[in-house]
Write a structure and sequence with these properties.
By secondary structure, the chain is α/β, with parallel strands linked by helices. The protein is built from 23 helices and 24 strands.
Length: 791
């Protein structure tokens, strides 16, 4: 139950209804939108929500469900109920196209058994009666016109009409040419008057040709005559036209009589189409506001996660702005949330968001919240929003508020949701505050649920010390003097009356007087609230920074794991190559030794030849040894003399090189790249500048590779780019990924119309290093993100 009557209007539900109304394809669907009501039965609400979610899934997945247009079958079925009536060609064609839509939809769901169970329930046990289509097809063609062969009589009439028209045309052409040759004809060609083909004759020649004059020109110089020979033929054609019309009506009556037994089934088809149009309109609206289905519970409680006001969301989206999400919960131990804070800080929007989303959900609509949200069912929703003063009823603003409070107190239960904006206003605050506090205490004792906004300090104090009530405030940026529109539960908020007044430039003397008149206690309370607000803001900023740092650490750990895996894989491959190279060297050495021994045996141990062969063998082995030694990095040679500031040193038994910045007794302060380190003198030795430069270059090369790998992010965002620019970025990114040896990358291109996705996928097919591509999981972006796996 809703109270007062304008509750839906004040919460903005009528505007929601109007937006859904526009999405309907038929007047029948629009009627259902107009009749939407707030429901209280769990099973009914759950069914409507699941139907809408399933249809939303069909639309988002671009399933081939064709629902373009359909008509009001009920009015056609009601018409054929009456004996003797018949449907016109147009009405029969409307019924035909509507039934085609019905059967194609049923076939769509039959091909996807149990995929959309709640939508399947809409046409459960509804048969496909194709006899109706076949009967209509015997009479109507593809364009909805009567077929010439709908009956033998009609076919004969149409044939006779064609012959008669041909004879009339032939006769008329002959007479026209004769009149034209005699110069009887006025300027112009054959024309039609009163449905008859006539010859335009000069008035002075009208008696030279026998016939019937149908019309004359404005000047009277031209008359339009139907020749006598054609007149009789045209009368026969007219009779045939009447016969044709009578035969068509006879055919339509016969067809309507054949369809009359199907009237109950036609009404069932009408109901199915109406519900389908209604669910489709709700699903389209859910996509517009990015709505989802929360967890539906039977208890009178709610937990909104990242909730957004749908109307505010659409308004902001048009201006390319985003809505700050709302997080709030109401349950057995936290029944009433008392929201305070500055004017224009979002208190009323917060309260209206809770109320509107609750009404939408209980009307069977998906709501713009995270799917982890939990929303229950309330038997009653009461709202006191705006000024309901009435001259006719002799009600002031405060009287109107009290009238509602009286109703709330009398009828509210633990399953009631109470929404009150600016609680206690409209009268002297000295009396309005205690009155509001008394009403709040009674409502809390009745375990009512609700969201209430206020500026009254006594209500904030009462909520802070009363179980079941909880203070909440809209955060405010003290430095920029701007609201943040973020709800913070647990502490009351200041109204920032003096700060806002000072910010807009109110004269200092006025502010000073106002502070003096407010009283020290009130000023102290307000200052305390401001300080608390500032601390909350600082805590909030710290939480944001901490969250950002945690994300960075998380990303670094992930990158480190990838790098570790990459290095492990490279280590294995390098070791494998080294082993293969060593085996090849050994194999070649063995072959060389074997060949040498064989040659010695062939020469029968000739001393000179044997000596020559041994020298060749030793020469080859020395060359291989030199090659291997060249691969090793030679250590820098030590320089004699004491180490001084500015000298280059190298750590003992290491290739680490640095420059001495300071010398403190036995300790050296050394710059190792960007690091500063303190080491003992006996742990380093002096080297030349040339040796230092070579060592730095060698280290910088290996460092640049590792730095490139660590700084590389396996994710590329292409949203908003033009196709050509995006492909250039993808090409460079793929080359770099292959060079660094990454196994896969992620390309974010968004959904949109799918053009950018198609261009990128086509390009990836031509890239030889790509093994396969696939979409991201549907919950994390679906086909708006492409994973690319590399060789």
């Amino acid at each position: 139950m809703l109270y007062p009557e304008n509750c839906l209007e004040r919460l903005g539900f009528n505007e929601i209804r109007a937006l859904i109304y526009k999405n309907c394809l038929s007047p029948m669907g629009q009627q259902l939108v107009s009749k939407m009501q707030v429901m209280t039965k769990y099973d009914q609400i759950n069914k409507f929500l699941r139907q809408t979610r399933e249809f939303k899934s069909i639309l988002e997945n671009q399933e081939p469900l064709q629902i373009s247009s359909f008509f009001d079958i009920r009015s056609l079925a009601d018409k054929i109920r009456v004996e003797g009536t018949y449907l016109s060609e147009e009405e029969l064609f409307q019924m035909y196209t509507s039934l085609q839509t019905v059967f194609s939809v049923i076939r769509f769901f039959d091909e996807r058994k149990e995929v959309y169970p709640n939508l399947e329930a809409l046409f459960e046990h509804l048969p496909i009666e194709k006899n109706i289509l076949r009967k209509i097809e015997t009479v109507l063609d593809a364009k909805g016109k009567i077929k010439p062969n709908a009956s033998a009589v009609l076919f004969q009439i149409i044939t006779d009409l064609a012959k008669g028209e041909q004879e009339v045309r032939k006769k008329m052409d002959s007479i026209y040419k004769q009149a034209l040759g005699n110069n009887w004809v006025a300027d112009g060609s054959l024309t039609v008057r009163d449905g008859r083909i006539c010859i335009p004759l000069l008035a002075e020649n009208k008696r030279k040709l026998k016939g019937f004059i149908h019309d004359e020109s404005a000047s009277g110089q031209t008359v339009y005559m139907e020749p006598e020979e054609v007149f009789t033929l045209n009368n026969k054609l007219r009779d045939l036209e009447f016969d044709k019309r009578r035969e068509i009506i006879k055919i339509l009556i016969a067809l309507t009589n054949e369809l009359r037994p199907y009237t109950p089934l036609l009404l069932s088809y009408h109901g199915f189409l109406t519900k389908l149009d209604f669910v489709r309109a709700k699903a389209l609206f859910a996509i517009e506001i990015e709505a989802d289905m929360p967890v539906l519970v039977k208890e009178a409680r709610t937990k909104l996660v990242n909730a957004r006001h749908p109307l505010l969301f659409l308004s902001f989206a048009a201006d390319q702005k985003t809505v700050v999400p709302l997080n709030v919960q109401i349950h057995e131990n936290l029944r009433i949330v008392l929201v305070s804070g500055p004017n224009a800080g979002g208190k009323s929007v917060c309260m209206k968001t809770v109320g509107l989303l609750q009404i939408m959900l209980q009307s069977g609509l998906l709501i713009p919240v995270h799917e982890s949200s939990e929303v229950g069912i309330f038997d009653q929703i009461f709202a006191d929003i705006g000024d309901d003063q009435s001259i006719e009823s002799d009600l002031s603003t405060y009287s109107a508020h009290l009238t509602k409070m009286r109703y709330f107190v009398a009828h509210a239960t633990p399953k009631s949701l109470v929404l009150i904006d600016e609680f206690g206003t409209g009268t002297d605050p000295q009396f309005g505050g205690p009155m509001a506090e008394a009403v709040l205490e009674v409502l809390n004792n009745k375990k009512v649920r609700g969201v209430i906004t206020t500026h009254y300090s006594n209500l904030k104090l009462f909520a802070g010390s009363t179980p079941g009530l909880e203070n909440a405030s809209m955060l405010f940026d003290n430095d920029k003097m701007k609201p943040l529109y973020i709800l913070e539960v647990g502490k009351p908020g200041s109204s920032y009356a003096f700060e806002i007044a000072q910010n807009i430039g109110l004269q200092p003397e006025v502010l000073k007087l106002a502070r003096e008149k407010t009283g020290s206690n009130q000023n102290r309370v307000d200052t305390l609230l401001v300080d608390l607000e500032r601390e909350k803001k600082q805590i909030y900023d710290t939480k944001i920074q901490l969250s950002t740092q945690q994300n960075k650490v998380k990303n670094l750990v992930a990158e480190n794991e990838k790098l570790k895996l990459f290095l492990e894989e490279n280590k294995k491959s390098l070791m494998k190559e080294a082993k293969m190279e060593a085996q090849a060297i050994i194999k070649n050495a063995n072959k060389l030794v074997e060949n040498t021994i064989a040659e010695i045996k062939e020469k029968q141990a000739d001393k000179v030849v044997t000596k020559q062969l041994r020298q060749n063998l030793e020469k080859v082995l020395v060359q291989n040894q030199v090659k291997e030694e060249k691969k090793e990095v030679l250590p820098a040679q030590k320089l004699d003399g004491p180490i001084e500031v500015g000298d280059w040193v190298q750590l003992n038994n290491s290739e680490t090189t640095g420059q001495v910045l300071e010398i403190n007794r036995d300790n050296l302060v050394v710059a190792l790249g960007d690091l500063r380190s303190v080491i003992k003198k006996n742990r380093a030795h002096k080297i030349s500048n040339t040796q230092a430069r070579k060592a730095i270059q060698a280290n910088s090369y290996s460092g640049s590779i590792s730095e490139a790998i660590s700084s590389f992010n396996a994710e590329l965002d292409l949203r908003g780019m033009r196709g050509e620019n995006a492909l250039q970025e993808v090409e460079k990114y793929l080359d770099r990924s292959v060079m660094l040896g990454f196994p896969f990358i992620k390309l974010i291109h968004g959904k949109g119309d799918g053009i950018l996705r198609k261009l990128i996928r086509e390009y990836l097919k031509k890239y030889s290093q790509v093994t396969r591509v696939e979409d991201e999981h549907a919950d994390r972006g679906g086909d708006g993100i492409t994973y690319v796996y590399l060789k």
